[in-house]
């Protein structure tokens, strides 16, 4: 069952001269219940902005220009005793609720979204190690989140639950009485995860959950997320620039570049049957056990400016496989399996299928072969196209 549907979401940041930066353009993906979905890409590609927009945490100059964020959860005042949307709310044209009961988070007010944060959707921020208030005890901060969304819970019950949550993520319960500066980096990260799980949300957004941690602690954090998912059945949206994190933890994923989704689908297909030049370039620039004796191949050039970008493919200026068509318009998402047998005659409409935004989708075998060669990714070759 689908928990979250993001449809054609475009986010902008207003700048002083009256123009705007295109943080994301027409991004679409879905997250199933109990699934781990990943968004991966270079810094500045829009993945963190997208995550913040889901729960209305954009900076003051950020705004959603168009698109919908349909979530399988209803505001308490709009729901019945089972938590489902009432028919009167569904029939009300002024309420952003679909016939299937999903609510459009993008259409909610900031006051309304506060009833959904923590209770239904919790976020582990990118700066998790700095997210704890230094003048409050760690346990008290978890208790505050519980009491805000569960006023029927007593303070003693909330404190006991906070201690239990810390223990579940590998922290001694008595450390609930300590302050953030008394925690190591890994402990702070686990404490923030415990806080995010305080109200048993349906969706957990983990933004760069392993950044600035050594590889041993990274592995432990990923293990904690997997354990929590199994125990609570929570869906997880993981955001990272590290494709190794995606390979370890995700079921499905999307690869973003320049505010666009370039490739999406099941993790195993994206890594095993890569179907986009940008993803091929990412794989080349990351070390593996089997290629330890080979030099890493970086993608030449720099990401595009997102202030008033043109209509062409966002990756074309760094892509060794770009053709004239790539300069005219950004490619739609094609179904990879269909393209390999039928060519690129049909756009991919199935969100769960393996899809790629590339006009050369019907030449994948050649692209995969050429992408392995270091000479393919030289600036001279790309400039000579």
UniProtKB/TrEMBL annotation:
It is found in: Cell membrane. It is a peripheral membrane protein. SMART domains: AAA. Its main location: membrane. Pfam families: ABC_tran (PF00005), oligo_HPY (PF08352). Residues 4-283 form the ABC transporter domain. GO terms for cellular component: plasma membrane. Keywords: ATP-binding, Cell membrane, Membrane, Nucleotide-binding, Transport. InterPro entries: AAA+_ATPase, ABC_Ni/Peptide_Import, ABC_transporter-like_ATP-bd, ABC_transporter-like_CS, Oligopep_ABC_C, P-loop_NTPase. NCBIfam families: oligo_HPY. PANTHER family: DIPEPTIDE TRANSPORT ATP-BINDING PROTEIN DPPD, OLIGOPEPTIDE TRANSPORT ATP-BINDING PROTEIN APPD. This is Peptide/nickel transport system ATP-binding protein. It comes from Halobaculum gomorrense.
């Amino acid at each position: 069952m689908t928990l979250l549907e993001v449809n054609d979401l475009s986010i902008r940041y207003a700048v002083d001269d009256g123009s705007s930066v295109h943080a994301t353009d027409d991004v679409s993906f879905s997250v199933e219940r109990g699934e781990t979905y990943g968004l991966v890409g270079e810094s500045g590609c829009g993945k963190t902005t997208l995550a913040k927009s889901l729960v209305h945490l954009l900076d003051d100059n950020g705004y959603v220009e168009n698109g919908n964020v349909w979530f399988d959860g209803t505001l308490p005042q709009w729901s019945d005793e089972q938590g489902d949307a009432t028919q009167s709310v569904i029939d009300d044209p002024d309420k952003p609720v679909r016939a299937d009961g999903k609510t459009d988070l993008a259409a909610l007010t900031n006051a309304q979204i506060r009833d959904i944060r923590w209770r239904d959707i919790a976020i582990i921020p990118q700066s998790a190690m700095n997210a704890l208030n230094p003048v409050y005890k760690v346990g008290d901060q978890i208790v505050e989140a519980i009491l805000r969304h569960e006023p029927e819970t007593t303070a003693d019950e909330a404190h006991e639950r906070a201690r239990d949550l810390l223990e579940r993520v590998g922290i001694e319960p008595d450390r609930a009485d300590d302050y953030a500066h008394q925690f190591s980096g890994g402990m702070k990260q686990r404490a923030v995860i415990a806080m995010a799980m305080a109200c048993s949300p349906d969706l957990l957004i983990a933004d760069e959950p392993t950044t600035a941690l050594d590889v041993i602690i990274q592995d432990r954090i990923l293990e904690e997320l997997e354990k929590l998912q199994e125990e609570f059945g929570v869906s997880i949206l993981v955001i990272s620039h590290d494709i190794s994190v995606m390979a370890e933890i995700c079921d499905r994923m999307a690869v973003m570049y320049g505010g666009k989704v370039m490739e999406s689908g099941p993790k195993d297909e994206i890594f095993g049957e890569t179907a986009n030049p940008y993803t091929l370039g990412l794989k080349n620039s990351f070390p593996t056990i089997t290629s330890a004796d080979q030099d890493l191949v970086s993608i030449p050039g720099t990401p595009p400016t997102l202030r008033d970008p043109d209509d062409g493919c966002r990756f074309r200026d760094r892509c060794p496989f770009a053709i004239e068509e790539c300069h005219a318009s950004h490619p739609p998402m094609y179904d990879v399996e269909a393209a390999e047998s039928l060519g690129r005659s049909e756009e991919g409409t199935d969100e769960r299928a393996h899809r790629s935004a590339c006009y050369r989708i019907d030449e994948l075998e050649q692209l995969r072969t050429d992408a392995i060669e270091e000479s393919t990714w030289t600036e001279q070759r790309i400039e000579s196209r």
